[in-house]
Amino acid sequence: MEVPGLAHNITSPLSPCAGMIKDLSALQLCERDGSKSQDGSMEALPVPQNIKISNITCDSFKICWDMEPSSKERITHYFIDLNKKENKNSNKFKHKDVPTKLVAKAVPLPMTVRGHWFLSPRTEYTVAVQTASKQTDGDYAISEWSEIVEFCTGDYSTVHLNQLLAKAEVIAGRMLPLSVFYRNQNKEYFDHAREDQGNMMLQAVKDNSGSHGSPISGKLEGVFFSCNTEFNTGKPPQDSPYGRQRFEVKADSLFNLDTNLYFGDFYCMYTAYHFVILVLAPKGSAGDDFCKGRLPALDLSNNSFLTCKQGEDGTLVFHHAQDVILEVIYTEPVDLAIGSVAEINGHQLMSMSTVNAKKDPSCKTCNISVGR
Hints:
The protein is mainly beta. 9% of the residues lie in helices and 33% in strands. It contains four helices and 23 strands. It has helices at residues 158-171, 187-196, 251-254, 286-291; strands at residues 2-3, 49-54, 60-66, 77-84, 101-105, 111-114, 124-134, 140-142, 149-152, 175-178, 180-185, 200-201, 204-205, 221-226, 245-250, 259-268, 274-282, 297-298, 306-310, 316-321, 325-330, 334-335, 339-343. Strands 13-14-21-17-16-18 form a six-stranded mixed beta sheet. Strands 4, 5, 7, 8 and 9 form a five-stranded antiparallel beta sheet that branches. β7 (124-134) and β8 form a beta hairpin. The chain is elongated, with a radius of gyration of 26 Å.
């Protein structure tokens, strides 16, 4: 059974929700005020035991527990106390309207709890349960609280990523030609690659920049590249936030017909600039296996961000979107010998760095209604 979302402007624990699903009332708010009914009498309702959390997604989970069969007919409601793990005391909120307890009619278990306004992706929560019985005077008789159980919500699914993809396509803009991928770092980085890594740039785990629910953050390994060009020159910009040394490689060395292309994320950092993360994975590679089933695959020759098309003479032609900044993750090590390293003439603009950058949760352009 699925419990619908939280009702707004609740005045009574029994206030119905306009969006009722079958025989379930909406989740509602009430205060966590102890284990006695309002008349002060002790109640003998069963305390939920052996709580189990399953089917966890980025904005929902299923919950069930054990109860004495003989007591089930007396139970009319469940009280579910849900809190982020870093704030275990549900009574210590600065704002009284922050939801701390969900109320649902007693339905067959397991029960689905879903709601993007109180569940966020990749977030640790604590949950405890009471059973309750509606009295003739409208008050509740309630059990003691169960044990507290911890769980963590999941990543965005491909459904959510496709929603982000659709939003990114709206603002991507027209396509401009490109001929190289480039990576800026400091001199020490390239010296280390030459002297200690066999002339190879090795993969690093993607940081936590971008959408909080992105399935690649902290998991996918790769070498990060840029590909945007300046409108007036058709060449890479001379400024970079990542260092004055730049490695350039011909586009077809990393992106060709033996490569798969995936959409990874869409975000901004409280600025007018928007970023799209793409993943380039050689077919059959470990990175390719990771992306399959987790990320939306893009058509190499027909997408809104980065294309590779074969010309009449057999050569590959490449284009990138003008109005978004592309961050490209190549999932395999890259040999410095296939490109060249030189110093840029521009500035190192640290303010443009996206290292561990937090996504603006208020931006309507790049957020979806499933947490941030």
